[in-house]
Amino acid sequence: MAAGFDVVLNIEVEGARKVMQSGMGDHRVIFVFLTPSSLDELDQRLRKRNTEDEQEMAKRLETAREEMKALAEFDYLVLNDAIEDAIDELRAIILAERSRITQT
Fold first, then answer.
1. In this structure, are residues 47 and 3 in contact, taking their beta carbons and an 8 Å threshold?
2. For residues 37 and 79, what is the distance between their CA atoms, to the nearest angstrom?
3. pLDDT tens, 17-59?
4. What is the pTM of this model?
5. Which of 101, 74, 91 is nearest to 8 (CA)?
6. How far apart are CA 40 and CA 97, in angstroms?
7. 94 FRET partner, CA 20 to 30 A, in 29, 66, 85, 102?
8. DSSP three-state, residue 5
9. How many CA atoms lie within 13 A of 74 on its CB side?
C-alpha cells in the first residue's frame, strides 16, 4: 500500500471486522461483501465440489447464514454467480474508488 498499489484481501467477516477496527492509519479501506446469490446456490456449489462431508457443509452454510447478517457493515455487495461478472464488478469498484473525490 505504501508503494501505491491496491491491495485485495480475501478474508471472512471476522477478519474484515478486525481490519475495520484497526483503522489502517491513513490508508483508505473499502469493504466488499462477495457472496453467491443464495444459500441454495452455495449448497449446490459445495455439493458439486464434493470436498466436504455433510457435517462440514452444514457448518459452512451456517457460517454463511451468520455472515450474511453483517452485510450492512460493508461498502459494496458483489454477487458471485458468474465469475467474470464478479471480476468486472470488483474492477469497477476499484476504478470508482480511485476516482473518488470525497472521502467517506
1. no
2. 6
3. 998 888 777 778 899 999 998 889 988 988 898 888 899 989 9
4. 0.82
5. 91
6. 32
7. 66
8. coil
9. 20
**pLDDT tens column, 11-23:** 999 999 998 888 7
User: 3-state DSSP helix/strand/coil percent for the chain, to nearest 5?
Assistant: 55, 10, 40
CATH numbers and ranges of domains, the chain: 13-99 (3.40.50.300)
Task: Say how far apart CA 49 and CA 35 lie, in whole Å.
Answer: 17
Reply yes or no on whether the pLDDT at 93 is more than 80.
Answer: yes
Residue position matching grid coordinates 464488478:
89
Q: Tell me the HSE value of 43 on the side-chain side, using a 13 A CA sphere.
A: 10
State how far the Cα of 18 lies from the Cα of 56, in Å rounded to an integer.
25
CA separation, residue 1 to residues 23, 24, 28, 50, 55 (Å): 14, 10, 10, 37, 40
Question: Which grid coordinates are listed for 79?
Answer: 454477487
Give me the helices (H) in 23-101, please: 39-49, 54-68, 83-99
